């Protein structure tokens, strides 16, 4: 009896043509999405559309081309996904450490609340309160990508546990590429100037060309907290943009993962089996 399984040039076992969808034997499903986007962008540019897709910057064209090329290289795309997930796991580890920081800050606030009469000013109390709230916000901002990676994001899963891996992958792939990813890209475009202003960028300076604060004491131009002590809130406001960036990267990793399952490469998809995925009704 001969074994029909073969081994690819990457050294990864291949289940044969029957395991892969005919359209995806050479190009990852995300590559087809990126290709369709590139064609639409070319048409929009030729027609002179005033929307973003008709006047994309060079870096977005480059990102689209790189995506298509990577989608034709399964192992390279797989390594990109692993790198993104490593970043998400690291962010999750930091957020867990922040939980202890928040606990200690709030413990200090409770202690100083009852010992405040020993001091002539309560500025330190106000500063630690602001720092605790900022740390609390940072915990959630860092935890978004980690939550998406580990599947703890809220979803309506009445039938999810009964679905096959292929059906789960199709559901996530379609919804991520058509709804979630465009929303995140829009969010990044909205938050980028907001983050810049939070860090002191003045878009009206220098004749409307914009200007960053001069000198090395940049924190003096950051927005201040309204609490006692007036800690700068610019960094935590700017980190909203960073959180969306991490979230977008992890969604791309999910698209890569589910695309491999659709293409019949579950060895690169790391999808949970039906028995391993808990039923979540939220």
How would you characterize the overall build of this protein?
Strands 1-2 form a two-stranded antiparallel sheet. It is built from seven helices and two strands. It is mainly alpha-helical. It has a domain at 79-269. A hairpin with a 5-residue loop joins strand 1 and strand 2 (13-14). It has helices spanning 29-47, 58-71, 74-115, 123-149, 165-198, 234-262, 266-269, and strands spanning 6-7, 13-14.
Concise structural overview:
The chain has 282 residues and is an all-alpha fold. It is 60% helix and 1% strand.
Total number of β-strand segments?
2
From the alpha carbons, calculate the radius of gyration and give it in angstroms: 24 Å
Proportion of helical residues: 55-70%
Record the strand order, biggest sheet.
Answer: 1-2
List the helices and strands in order: EEHHHHHHH
Mean pLDDT: 79
Number of helices: 7
Helix vs. strand class: mainly alpha
Which parts are unreliable, with pLDDT below 50 for 5 consecutive residues or more?
Answer: 1-18, 273-282
Q: End-to-end span in angstroms?
A: 50 Å
* Strand residues, percent: under 5%
Shape summary:
flat
Biggest pleated sheet: 2 strands, antiparallel
